[in-house]
């Protein structure tokens, strides 16, 4: 059976490249890890499939023996989820080279993401072929795959397409278009702007009206997200992302930030089939593998529901909508964080001591404690947390005692909560409790809800 011809693409098809572009992140080197382990990859692939991604890009098996061996393991993960989630296409990212293509086909790739540089910079410094040479090699290779492996899904990309003139890109794509399912449009070095993306996409759509387009945007200018949004709104159906946007240099478009923004723009058709509640868990999963928190610049993050200014904190306690404009709980960020510090007002201190620490106290005492805390917190020691300081002041200097309350779940959870007795104290950079949740289980739960 040919899975691809039997598959009707949705309005937006994410081609997630966390396991290819994402593995090129320098963040892995920061911890002397250099690559994802097989278990990491299996977990990430599983999470992506449960999240609703249907196209996953992997390294060419020609990269190393380990990558080649991992292909079989990842196919097994995919196969185990077919009954539950349908078919997921595993695409190999391959150079325009018969050796890479043969290795990918032998590894059981469903599709080939073939690329070769078309800009003057790539031609000069990368492979040394002129445009005619590129066309010759690419045509021969793609014709051969078409003939010998007609079930393989083919994409061709002129690497560095945004520094390739339209005339040069058309010169190559005109010859390749009849042989492939998709043409790629990678902004390899992050020079594109929303205006240049709109112009390029429109030009390609006009010239190749029956072909699908694929976008890939690097974040060197901080425009990876807005460029991807512009591309999909101009008719690019296939878009490359990675979880948390990790990738070469400053990375590419983040998976969840793209979907989150489409949701904010009420572009619900393009969200068909994605389990948005799994967004934060999947960010946590990958961030955890990179030994970091979900970046504060990531829209789907606990940071976006964490409040420090006193004015914000007291307003959020009365109504979260005051400083939380987006329905982040629909994206799995199901708690708010309140950080205590010198900007905290008496009311949040009252709330923290009463509702989170279950002390018996009145508002007047809370005001007095707040005055002491706000002065003392400036002299806080590196091994002490603001919560510990506040609790110590409340207990030792004001003699507060605990109310005998049942441990009811609170809607607001202290992000930097201090440890239970006997636990090692967490430092500020350690994972908040929500970020250490069993992510696979969470994704699975969302998934079964959505199926039931
Ligand atoms: C690379 C370059 C690439 C390829 C993208 C693509 C880019 O790391 O090999 O194949 O569409 O940014 O151009 O990631
Ligand atoms: Cu890239």
Quick description:
42% of the residues lie in helices and 11% in strands.
Task: For this entry, give a set of tags.
binds copper (II) ion, eight-stranded parallel β-barrel, elongated, alpha/beta, 42% helix, two-stranded parallel sheet, 452 residues, single chain
The largest sheet, given as strand count, sense and whether it forms a barrel, is: 8 strands, parallel, barrel
- Mean pLDDT, nearest integer? 88
- Cα separation of the termini: 28 Å
Number of helices: 17
* Bound small molecules, deduplicated: 3-hydroxy-3-carboxy-adipic acid, copper (II) ion
In percent terms, what proportion of residues is strand? 5-15%
Low confidence ranges: 408-438
Q: SSE order, as H and E?
A: EHHEHHEHEHHEHEHEHEHHEHEHHHH
Helix content: 40-55%
Overall geometry = elongated
Number of distinct beta strands? 10
Biggest sheet strand line-up: 1-2-3-4-5-6-7-8
Task: Identify the quaternary structure here.
Answer: single chain
Which structural class should the secondary elements be placed in? alpha/beta
- Taking all Cα atoms into account, the compactness measure Rg is 25 Å
Can you describe this structure?
- It is built from 17 helices and ten strands.
- It is of the alpha/beta class and 452 residues long.
- Strand 7 (212-217), helix 10 (224-233) and strand 8 form a beta-alpha-beta unit.
- Helix 2 runs antiparallel to helix 12 (279-289).
- 3-hydroxy-3-carboxy-adipic acid is lined by residues 21, 24, 93, 113, 115, 157, 159, 184, 186, 188, 216, 218, 248.
- Copper (II) ion (CU) binds at residues 21, 188, 216, 218, 247-248, 252.
């Amino acid at each position: 059976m040919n899975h691809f011809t039997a598959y009707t693409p949705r309005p937006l098809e994410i081609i997630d490249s966390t396991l290819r572009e994402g593995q090129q992140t320098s963040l892995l080197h920061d911890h002397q890890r250099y690559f994802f382990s097989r278990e990491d990859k299996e977990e990430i692939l599983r999470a992506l499939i449960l999240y609703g991604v249907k196209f996953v890009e992997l390294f060419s098996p020609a990269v190393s023996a380990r990558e080649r061996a991992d292909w079989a393991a990842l196919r097994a993960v995919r196969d185990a989820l077919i009954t539950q989630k349908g078919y997921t296409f595993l695409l190999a990212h391959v150079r325009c080279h018969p050796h890479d293509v043969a290795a990918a086909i032998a590894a059981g790739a469903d599709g080939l993401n073939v690329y070769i540089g078309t800009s003057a910079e790539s031609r000069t410094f990368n492979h040394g072929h002129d445009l005619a040479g590129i066309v010759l090699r690419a045509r021969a290779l793609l014709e051969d795959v078409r003939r010998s492996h007609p079930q393989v899904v083919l994409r061709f990309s002129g690497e560095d397409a945004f520094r390739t003139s339209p005339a040069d890109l058309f010169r190559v794509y005109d010859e390749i278009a009849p042989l492939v399912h998709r043409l790629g449009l990678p902004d390899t070095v992050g020079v594109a702007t929303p205006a240049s993306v709109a112009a390029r996409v429109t030009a390609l759509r006009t010239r190749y009206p029956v072909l699908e387009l694929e976008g890939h945007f690097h974040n060197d200018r901080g425009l990876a997200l807005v460029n991807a949004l512009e591309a999909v709104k101009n008719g690019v159906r296939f878009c490359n992302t990675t979880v948390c946007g990790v990738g070469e240099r400053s990375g590419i478009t983040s998976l969840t930030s793209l979907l989150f923004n489409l949701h904010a723009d009420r572009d619900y058709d393009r969200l068909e089939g994605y389990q948005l509640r799994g967004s934060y868990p999947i960010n946590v999963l990958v961030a955890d593998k990179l030994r970091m928190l979900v970046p504060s610049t990531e829209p789907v993050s606990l940071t976006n529901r964490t409040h420090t200014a006193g004015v914000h904190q007291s307003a959020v306690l009365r109504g979260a909508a005051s400083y939380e404009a987006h329905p982040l709980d629909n994206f799995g960020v199901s708690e708010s964080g309140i950080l205590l510090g010198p900007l905290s007002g008496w009311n949040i201190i009252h709330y923290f001591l009463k509702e989170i620490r279950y002390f018996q106290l009145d508002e007047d005492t809370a005001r007095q404690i707040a005055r002491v805390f706000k002065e003392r917190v400036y002299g806080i020691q590196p091994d002490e947390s603001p919560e510990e300081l506040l609790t110590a002041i409340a207990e030792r200097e004001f003699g507060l005692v605990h109310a005998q309350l049942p441990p009811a779940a609170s809607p607001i959870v202290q992000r930097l909560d201090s440890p239970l007795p006997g636990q090692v104290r967490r430092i500020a950079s350690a994972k908040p409790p929500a970020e250490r949740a069993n992510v696979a289980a969470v994704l699975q739960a969302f998934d079964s809800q959505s199926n039931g």
